[in-house]
């Protein structure tokens, strides 16, 4: 329903551990990169019902010598 909304919504989007740089764009809310948890935290104070919002991210990775599976 358009009249229903969520408050204090946080969406955690994981990134690889070898993330070097990140660029993020959102039109709604704020995004912060948390290097300790290797994730983007998309924070929205009030999320309206029946709406969609986009997050566009570019991530640059550091080259690794040893191949590790990303989990």
Describe what this molecule looks like in 3D:
This protein is mostly beta strands. Helices cover about 0% and strands about 55% of the residues. The strands form two sheets. Strands 1-4-3 form a three-stranded antiparallel beta sheet, with no helix packed on it. Strands 2-5 form a two-stranded antiparallel sheet. Strand 3 (about 30-35) and strand 4 (about 40-50) form a beta hairpin. It is elongated, with a radius of gyration of 15 Å. The termini are far apart.
Question: How many strands?
Answer: 5
Mean pLDDT figure: 90
The spatial strand order of the largest sheet comes to 1-4-3
Tell me the span between the first and last alpha carbons: 36 Å
Percent strand equals over 45%
Calculate Rg over CA atoms.
15 Å
Order of helices and strands: EEEEE
Helix content: under 10%
Instruction: Name the shape in a single word.
Output: elongated
- Could you name the ranges where pLDDT drops below 50 across 5 or more consecutive residues? none
- Find the structural class using helix and strand composition: mainly beta
User: Oligomeric status of the shown chains?
Assistant: single chain
Largest sheet: 3 strands, antiparallel
Number of helices: 0
Protein traits:
56% strand, mainly beta, three-stranded antiparallel β-sheet, 5 strands, 71 residues
């Amino acid at each position: 329903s358009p009249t229903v909304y969520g408050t204090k919504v946080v969406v955690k989007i994981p990134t690889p551990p070898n993330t070097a740089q990140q660029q993020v764009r959102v039109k709604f809310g704020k995004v912060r990169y948390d290097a300790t948890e290797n994730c983007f935290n998309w924070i929205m104070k009030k999320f309206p019902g029946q709406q969609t919002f986009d997050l566009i991210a570019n991530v640059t990775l550091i080259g690794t010598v040893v191949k590790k599976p990303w989990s």
